[in-house]
Specification:
Largest sheet: 6 strands, mixed
Order of helices and strands: HEEEEEEEEEEEEEEEEHEHEEEEEE
CATH architecture of the largest domain: Sandwich
Mean pLDDT: 86
Number of helices: 3
Distance between the termini: 36 Å
Number of domains: 3
CATH topology of the largest domain: Immunoglobulin-like
Length: 376
């Protein structure tokens, strides 16, 4: 939909070009802004804080990692936990052996830069970790998608959750996908697993409901199942508790991503944050320090979906007739034999020049994930 909208806008601009006077807005001097991305949970895992400096939009550059920062997290009991910078500059992590968020506690992020001139100290607002209920159920329903020819059967994945105590009224979800693929030819590496972690913003406000109960929340729609659902698929959904301010942050961020592109659209600096500079309180800072409890649930799907054709039909490139296939130039390097054609003289060999047809590690890994359950 976004692509169609952009194409339509471009066509309008092209048609109207001859009668429009170009307007070039004046852009003030660019100021680098500290960008903070990070969160902590109540799980025994590594928590990550990413510190960067923003770059001008017209330069089309990724944010500049800010190395050498002194990062710590303090709680309402007066305890302080230091973070260490990883080999990747600008990435700071907690030690799971020494730090784990506790529901009901309040946490504050502290940042001190050392590579700037002058250096600044930043601090987040104290953030309380709100309890999150478990995901009651994670399930799928088959659905026919007619946009393909012939129609193919995919599925929608939903979740249900509720909080009997009504403590958690704002939710956010993240999910990761993993699916198994099989190459239908007799080669050593013909079973692999592919994983994906989509960066989508999925939030829900349950504060206006009579009870914090969410039914049939649509997590993902799989419209092209030829790859993901042909063998076996798994999705892990993480559910986070939010306070009202953080919910508003994610909502504004989602709106900005959807609307960015026009002269009068929302800009990132209009998105609220919870981090400020101690020396210069009016200094702009982007990002949010998230403090959330987390619950998780995994779903496996191994089912028959109508209309799924093998994606490896394209592999059957051509046929070579030869009595000495071992002499073919580039055999098992740039050319691979998939099948033998019987009843011809000399024999025929169907081959491919696509390595992905004989080695699934070009798309995934041959190592089975530790969570993979062959019985589900």
């Amino acid at each position: 939909m976004k692509t169609l909208r952009l194409i339509a806008i471009l066509l309008i601009l092209v048609n109207a070009y001859s009668c429009v006077i170009n307007y070039v807005p004046k852009i003030s001097a660019f100021e680098e802004v500290l960008v903070v991305e990070g969160s902590i949970t109540d799980q025994p895992v590594i928590n990550t804080i990413k510190i960067t400096k923003s770059q001008p939009l017209w330069k089309r550059l990724y944010p500049r990692p800010l190395q050498g920062c002194i990062i710590s997290i303090s709680d309402d009991l007066g305890q302080t936990y230091s973070l260490k910078e990883t080999a990747t500059f600008g990435i700071y992590v907690t030690d799971p052996a020494n730090f784990r968020g506790v529901i009901g506690r309040t946490y504050t992020l502290h940042i001190r830069t050392t590579y700037e001139s002058p250096n600044f100290s930043y601090e987040s607002m104290p953030m309380k970790m709100i309890p999150v209920p478990p995901i009651d159920s994670l399930y799928y329903e088959k659905k026919i998608f007619v946009q393909s020819s012939p129609p193919v059967e995919g599925c929608n994945i939903y979740l249900n959750t509720h909080d009997p105590s009504n403590n958690c009224r704002f939710y956010r979800w993240e999910y990761s996908e993993t699916w198994e693929i099989h190459i239908p030819f007799n080669f050593p590496i013909n079973v692999c697993w592919i994983s994906d972690n989509p960066e989508e913003i999925q939030i829900k406000n349950a504060s206006l409901l009579s009870e914090a109960k969410i039914i049939r929340y649509p997590v993902i729609t799989i419209t092209d199942p030829v790859d993901k659902l042909s063998v076996k698929y798994s999705i892990l959904v993480n559910q986070f508790s939010l306070n009202e301010d953080e919910y508003y942050y994610w909502e504004q961020l989602e709106n900005t991503i959807d609307q960015t592109g026009g002269l009068y659209d929302l800009i990132p600096t209009s998105i609220p944050n919870n981090i400020f500079c101690l020396e210069e309180p009016t200094k702009k800072v982007l990002g949010y320090f998230s403090v959330s409890a987390m619950s998780s649930k995994r779903l496996f799907i191994k089912d028959n979906f109508n209309g799924i054709n093998t994606m490896y039909a394209r592999c059957l490139s051509d046929t070579i007739f030869t009595a000495r296939p071992d002499t073919l130039h580039g055999l098992n390097n740039d050319l691979w034999i998939l099948k033998t054609v019987l009843g011809t003289l000399p024999p025929g060999y169907i081959f491919t020049t696509d390595r992905g047809c004989v080695d699934c590690t070009t798309r995934g890994t041959k190592y089975k994930p530790v969570f993979w359950d062959d019985n589900k």
